[in-house]
Amino acid sequence: MTRIAHGRSWPTSLAAGCAVLLILLGAIVLAGWIANLPTLIQLRPELPPMTRNVAASFLLVGVALLVLSLRGPRWIAALCAVPVLAVSCVSYADFAFRLDSGIHEILGPSYINVQLRSPGRMAPITAVSLAVTSASLLAIATVLPLRTGLALSLAGAVVTAFGLVAALHVKPSLAALHTGVGIAIAGAGLVALAWRSAPPGQPTPAWLPLGIAAGMAGLTAALLRALLVGGYAPSAPLPLLVLGIGTLLGPVLAFTVHLAQRAHAQAAALERSQAFLEEAQALSRTGSFWWRVPTGEITCSRQLHRILEVGEAQPVGVELLSQCFDSETFRALGDPAAQPEGRGLQVDGEHRLQLPGGAEKHLHVVAHGIRTKDGVLEYIGAVQDVTAQRASEQALAEVRSEFARVARISSLGALTASIAHEVQQPLAAIIMNSSTCLRMLEADPPNVGGARETARRNIRDGNRAAEVVSRLRSLFAKKPFTTEALDLNAATREVLALCANELQRSRVQWQADLAGEALTVAGDRVQLQQVILNLVLNAVEAMGTVEGRPRLLVVKSGREDGLARVSVQDTGTGFAVADAESLFDAFYTTKPEGMGIGLSVSRSIVERHHGRLWAAANAGPGATFTFAIPLLAPCAAQGVQVESAAGELA
User: Fold this and answer.
1) DSSP 28-96
2) Domain at 410-649: CATH architecture
3) Which residues contact 23 (CB under 8 A, 6 or more apart)?
């Protein structure tokens, strides 16, 4: 069963109103027949009466229309429509085939009791109108989808036209005056139901032009029949005039309405497209502009006004648009000599916009130039406000740096003994040399030369201790991510020197097989050393329980396919092949007291250097952890060094 479409209130009200009028009309006329009141039946003595069958049909049609308009039980509407359809069809068959089925007296020979001149038969136009109306209501109540309201609208238009003709041309051979009014009301109710079935987004249904054409055709046909019944000859001027006007006016009105619907649909589609574009630009914080270079004419979207923080009423001129580009790029955009032949420049980059209040915005600008048929240079571009994105990236970088620093500090405990030994050795030497120096100076005569040599050894040992402290400070200091050109071999040697005593204390034999040439990369020295330190300390811990075989650590470096590689190989307990990727997940650890952040932070650091870190099980015992990052070309290395030096001077 098909449901009537929701979402339109006035067609529902109109349909319900028509239904109530039909119910009242039928009930009043039936009451006139029961009470023998000719005034209610025929209004005036010279007019034809409304028969009992017609009055009862109006009553039933009104009930069916009311049920459908209020979305009530459809079986009630079907129950009311069936007898109306049967009576009207039989009545028209009596007229067409000159029969006397007695259907007009089914409710009694009322015209005799009321003493009317008319025999009380249903007029043919009334029978046809009621048959069409009841059939339409029955179809709606049973099988007809109201979404296809074309058939319903055509039926309603024709019935309305018949009713108007019957009401205006009152002849005994046609219908009573109030019968014509009732037929017109029923037709209007059908049209209202059909109107309600149109999609909510359409102000007028798509079938309206056809409905108008059908209504005009029905009106013309009914008027012609009325004129012919009234005694006019078919070739008389008035029937010909009615035929000509109806033939021309129907298609003209239908085509006019169709054009109006089409124009409205196009305007609505354009409005929806503009609203969608504005909403999409607002969500993505992207504004657009069009710039005609020779005239300086600029058209831009509302979102660009918001990005530039200017009112929508304020025009965006060349000077204001130039703030979206760096000065050199904007000069090139407007310079005809700088344009490629046949087109304009292509721009894709970021720029910082300084607002009058001191605030700063980061803009991503994409624009391309085109030339019109007249050779005029124009630019079409988009400006995206990426300030929030850059702020988020900065905050994420700070969190990563802090997380990496926490990981470095967490590894400090594992190096405590090694650090203490590294510092203790030069300090003990300084104490011993200082005592020797005092004895040499107290001798008689003082041994000045020996004391001088001892003082030099003190300076040497003090520098050794200072270097240890300096390496620790650089490794564990809190500072932002900085990119510089560095030798990965040298960074690896510094880490191994820091871990030397820890390796010895853990009874680990270690071997450094580093490349003979410098492996120059661009990166943060501290963070890359942290990766190497994490891998070395993990290897030491993995071999902590190994007994019965050598504890061997091999650190290798080399270059391959434009990448600098560093690998740390151990002979420890290793790991399961299925855990090769899980090892790098945050807080995943196989150690009882591990935090599970070392390898996760290491991979994050390597990926930030555009490289990758992976693990592989050895053919024998243990595992090998390797990371690779891009090598820096010699010319690029000089640029990075200059940039790094400038940053340090700043």
Assistant:
1) HHHHHHHHT-HHHHHSSTTSPPPPHHHHHHHHHHHHHHHHHHTT--HHHHHHHHHHHHHHHHHHHHHHH
2) 2-Layer Sandwich (3.30)
3) 58, 59, 62, 63, 66
Q: What is the pLDDT of residues 303-350, one digit of tens each?
A: 888 877 777 777 777 777 777 777 777 777 777 666 666 677 788 888
State how far the Cα of 218 lies from the Cα of 205, in Å rounded to an integer.
20
Confidence of residue 409 (pLDDT cuts 50, 70, 90): low
What is the rounded distance in angstroms from the CA atom of residue 650 to the CA atom of residue 646?
A: 6
pLDDT at 27: 93
Containing H/E element for 455?
helix 448-476
Rg (CA), the chain: 49
What token pair was written down for 507? Answer: 């009874």
Angle at Cα 163 formed by Cα 160 and Cα 169, nearest 5°? 140
CATH number, domain 285-385, options 3.30.450.20, 3.65.10.10, 3.40.1620.10, 3.40.640.10: 3.30.450.20
The reply to whether the predicted model has a pTM over 0.70 is no
Residue with tokens 């040497």: 460
Q: Using one digit for the tens of pLDDT, what is the confidence trace for 468-518? A: 666 556 555 555 667 788 899 988 888 888 777 778 878 888 888 888 888
CA distances from 595 to 334, 410, 527, 539, 577 (A): 59, 9, 19, 16, 21
Counts for the chain of helices (H) and strands (E), in that order: 20, 12
Structure-block tokens of residue 224: 């012609």
Quote the CA–CA distance of 406 and 409 in Å, as a whole number: 5
Residue 73: φ, ψ to 5°:
-60, 125
